[in-house]
Design brief:
heterodimer, A: alpha/beta, six-stranded mixed sheet, B: mainly beta, five-stranded mixed sheet, 1 helix
C-alpha cells in the first residue's frame, strides 16, 4: 500500500494554439489508508511574561499539562518558557508514567517573570528537540503567547523578519513544524505576525480569545499534530513546459508559498506533514506558450511526492494539456479546480484587506471589502460574510476596523471546505 | 491579454481573477451559447445580447463592433488578442436632440447592420415610460449590472437597515464609499425621465456635469448618469 497518492487536474483542459496562456494545475496529496500515526517529538513553548499573570498563566499551565497527560511511551515532549530569557522546564524525554507526573509538576511550578523574549524561547525549544528528530517521528513546536515579542529589557522587537526566517529555516532544513496560539486580544499579540510565523513553519495559527478557550484550542492543535501519518513531505514538479508562477496550498487551509525557484524546468517544495484521512490540495499557476508544430496534446509537467521516511517510495503522475481552437473545448472548466481558485482568490483578497487596513486607506478598504464579500457569499461562507458586514458597518459609521475583527476574518478565510 | 474592468491591469489570457485587484475577469475563451445576432465586444471578447450598446463585461462601446457571430465562426476568438488593448474604445456619444414624434430609433444607424435594433415607437425620447428603459453600470464593482426603471418614481441610494432606508436602486454593491443613502430620485414626467440630486456632498452628474441640488434634470436615452463614482448609462430594455 503506497504511503501517498497523487491526483491532478487542470482548470482548463485545453489551451489555445497561439499566444501565452495561464492554466492552473490542481495537485491533491492523499495519505494511504490505515497508516499508523507517527510518534511525537513535541516542543511546547509557553510565554510566562508579566502580562500572563493570573488566570492566563494558570490556564496555560493546565492546558499544557493536559497535553502531556495524553502522550504515550513512544512520544517525547519538552516544555520551555520564555520571558526575559528562556529556560527548559521539562527536558525532552519519552513519556512513561513517571516522566508524565514529574513533567506536570514542573509545568505547574512555573511563575510569571519579565519580558517577552520570544527569540530566546525559540532558540531554547529548537535546541531541546533537535537531537531527537528522525524520519520516523513528527517534530512539532507549539508556541503560546499573549503579547508582541520584546528584547530582554521589554522593548518591542521590531525586526520580525528574523523570527520568520528562523521558523522557515527550521522547517525547510530540519523538518520542524511550528504552530502558534495567540491568547487574548489580537491587538496585543500581533495576529499577523503569529500567523506568518506559523505559515513559515508549515503549522497553524489559532486564537484563544479568553483563558477559558485555551484548553480547547491547545487540544485541537495537539489532536491534529498527533494524527500525523507522514512527516517532512516534498512535492516535486519536473519537466515543466512553461513558467511557474504562484504555488498555493488551499486544503485544508491556505498558504501562499514563496515563488518556486525553477532550475532545469524543475522545482521542489517542502510541504510538511500529512495527517490521517486529511488530503491536501495545492494549486500551481503555469504560463504556457504556444506549442511548436501541430499538436493536440503534450506533457505539461511531471509531479512527484514522497516523505523523508520513504524517499524511494514516490508517488508520480504526468500532467497533459490539450491544444485547441475550438471554442467549446476552450470553454470547458473543471468545476472543482475553479472552486478552489475562488478560495485562493478569497485569501488573496484577505491579504489585500489587511494591507489596506494597515495603510489606513478607507476607500481601498471599502473596495476590497465589497469584492471579498461577493466572494465569500459565492463560496457560501456565512460566518465570514457576517464578519465582513460588521467591518462595512464600522467603516460606514466612520470607525476603525479592529485587530480582533481582522484576525477573525483572517481565521475564517484560512479555512477551506474539505474536498468531497 | 485580458484587461481588468475594475483596475485596468493586464492579465495573461486564461486568468480568472485579476492578479492586481482580485476582480473576476471576463472569460475571453468562453464559447457561451451563441445566439443569432450576439455581438462580440472588440475589447474583451465578451458576447453581448444584440441590443446592447455597451459591453456588459467591460463597458466598452459596441457601436462600431464587427458583424455578430453566426454559428460558423469566421475568425478565431484570439485574433482580437494578437495585440494588447491599452484602452477601451470611446463611449457612446450623446444622441442629438429629438423631435416629439420620432419614427426611427436614434441609435439604429450606429448599430451593426445585422443587429436587431430596438423598436422605434417605444424608445423615442419624450416617450419614456416605466419598464421600457434601464440603467446599466459602466463603472462600478459589477460592470454590466442592470436596473430596470419599473416605477414612476424611484429612489437611488444605499441601503441602511439601521436607519430603515431601502432605496429602489441600491448601489451599495457598486461603490458604497461615495453613494449617499438617499442620493437622488428618478421620475418619469410626461414621457421624460428626470433625475434630482438630493443634496449630498457626492454629486449626481449627467454626462459628467454635476446637476444642481433639488433641481430635476432630464436624462435621455444613451446619457451617462453618475451617482458618486458609479457611472450608469440609460438604455432601452
Amino acid at each position: 500500500m503506497p504511503d501517498l497518492a497523487l491526483r491532478t487536474a487542470l482548470d482548463k483542459e485545453f489551451r489555445p494554439t497561439r499566444g501565452e496562456f495561464l492554466q492552473t494545475l490542481f495537485i491533491e496529496l492523499s495519505p494511504g489508508r490505515g497508516m499508523r500515526t507517527l510518534p511525537l517529538n513535541l516542543g511546547i513553548l509557553l510565554d510566562n511574561s508579566g502580562s500572563m499573570e493570573g488566570d492566563k498563566l494558570e490556564r496555560a499551565k493546565r492546558a499544557c499539562s493536559l497535553i502531556l497527560d495524553q502522550l504515550s511511551p513512544e512520544d517525547r515532549a519538552a516544555v520551555a518558557v520564555f520571558s526575559s530569557g528562556s529556560r527548559v522546564v521539562v527536558p525532552s524525554a519519552p513519556f512513561g508514567e513517571g516522566a508524565s507526573f514529574k513533567a506536570r509538576q514542573n509545568v505547574m511550578d512555573v511563575r510569571v517573570e519579565g519580558a517577552t523574549e520570544l527569540l530566546a524561547g525559540l532558540n531554547t525549544i529548537y535546541k531541546e528537540i533537535e537531537p531527537f528528530k528522525s524520519p520516523g517521528n513528527t517534530t512539532f513546536v507549539i508556541v503560546l503567547s499573549d503579547g508582541q515579542p520584546t528584547d530582554a529589557q521589554g522593548f518591542i522587537d521590531r525586526d520580525l523578519d528574523k523570527f520568520l526566517e528562523r521558523s522557515k529555516s527550521e522547517f525547510e532544513r530540519g523538518g520542524v513544524s511550528l504552530s502558534t496560539i495567540g491568547l487574548g486580544s489580537a491587538a496585543d499579540y500581533d495576529a499577523t505576525f503569529l500567523r506568518d510565523l506559523a505559515d513559515k513553519g508549515s503549522g497553524k495559527f489559532l486564537m484563544a480569545a479568553t483563558p477559558e478557550d485555551l484548553a480547547a484550542t491547545f487540544q485541537d492543535e495537539f489532536g491534529r499534530i498527533a494524527s500525523t501519518v507522514l512527516s517532512d513531505v516534498t512535492i516535486e514538479v519536473s519537466r515543466l513546459n512553461g513558467r511557474a508562477r504562484r504555488f498555493w496550498r488551499v486544503v485544508p487551509d491556505k498558504k501562499i508559498f514563496d515563488a518556486p525557484q525553477v532550475t532545469n524546468n524543475s522545482f521542489r517544495v517542502p510541504v510538511g506533514s500529512v495527517q490521517n484521512d486529511q488530503p491536501q490540495a495545492y494549486l500551481l499557476d503555469v504560463v504556457t506558450s504556444a506549442p511548436e508544430g501541430a499538436k493536440s496534446r503534450d506533457l505539461l509537467c511531471q509531479i512527484a511526492a514522497w516523505s523523508s521516511a520513504n524517499p524511494n517510495q514516490r508517488a508520480e503522475i504526468n500532467v497533459l494539456t490539450g491544444y485547441s481552437d475550438n471554442e467549446v473545448e476552450l470553454a470547458q472548466r473543471n468545476g472543482e479546480v475553479v472552486r478552489l481558485l475562488e478560495e485562493a482568490n478569497d485569501f488573496k483578497l484577505q491579504v489585500d484587506l489587511e494591507a489596506a487596513v494597515k495603510s489606513g486607506d478607507r476607500r481601498k478598504m471599502t473596495q476590497v471589502l465589497e469584492r471579498k464579500k461577493k466572494m465569500t457569499q459565492r463560496l457560501g461562507k456565512t460566518s465570514a460574510t457576517k464578519v465582513l458586514e460588521e467591518m462595512e458597518d464600522t467603516l460606514d459609521r466612520g470607525g476603525q476596523i479592529s485587530a480582533d475583527t481582522l484576525a477573525v476574518s483572517s481565521a475564517e478565510t484560512k479555512k477551506t471546505k474539505r474536498l468531497a | 491579454m485580458i484587461i481588468c474592468p475594475a483596475c485596468g491591469h493586464q492579465n495573461i489570457d486564461g486568468t480568472q481573477f485579476c492578479e492586481m485587484c482580485g476582480e473576476e475577469l471576463p472569460d475571453a475563451t468562453a464559447a457561451a451559447t451563441l445566439g443569432a445576432g450576439d455581438v462580440k465586444c472588440p475589447n474583451c471578447g465578451h458576447l453581448n445580447p444584440s441590443d446592447n450598446l455597451a459591453c456588459e463585461a467591460c463597458g466598452s462601446s459596441l457601436q462600431l463592433s464587427p458583424s455578430p457571430l453566426a454559428s460558423g465562426l469566421e475568425k478565431t476568438p484570439f485574433d482580437d488578442f494578437a495585440t494588447s488593448v491599452q484602452t477601451p474604445p470611446p463611449p457612446v456619444a450623446s444622441p442629438t436632440p429629438v423631435a416629439p414624434v420620432v419614427t426611427a430609433d436614434p441609435f439604429a444607424t450606429s448599430v451593426a447592420p445585422d443587429v436587431t435594433a430596438p423598436t422605434a415607437t417605444s424608445q423615442t425620447p419624450g416617450d419614456l415610460k416605466p419598464g421600457l428603459v434601464k440603467l446599466v453600470v459602466e463603472q462600478g464593482q459589477t460592470v454590466g449590472a442592470q436596473f430596470v426603471l419599473g416605477d414612476e418614481q424611484l429612489e437611488v441610494g444605499r441601503e441602511d437597515e439601521d436607519e430603515d432606508i431601502y432605496p429602489d436602486i441600491d448601489l451599495s454593491d457598486q461603490d458604497a464609499g461615495y453613494v449617499h443613502r438617499r442620493h437622488a430620485t428618478l421620475n418619469f414626467d410626461n414621457g421624460h425621465l428626470l433625475v434630482t440630486h438630493l443634496g449630498g456632498a457626492n454629486k449626481t452628474r449627467v454626462n459628467n456635469k454635476p446637476i444642481p441640488d433639488n433641481s430635476p434634470t432630464e436624462v435621455k436615452l444613451g446619457d451617462k448618469v453618475s451617482f458618486g463614482k458609479v457611472v450608469l448609462r440609460l438604455l432601452p430594455v
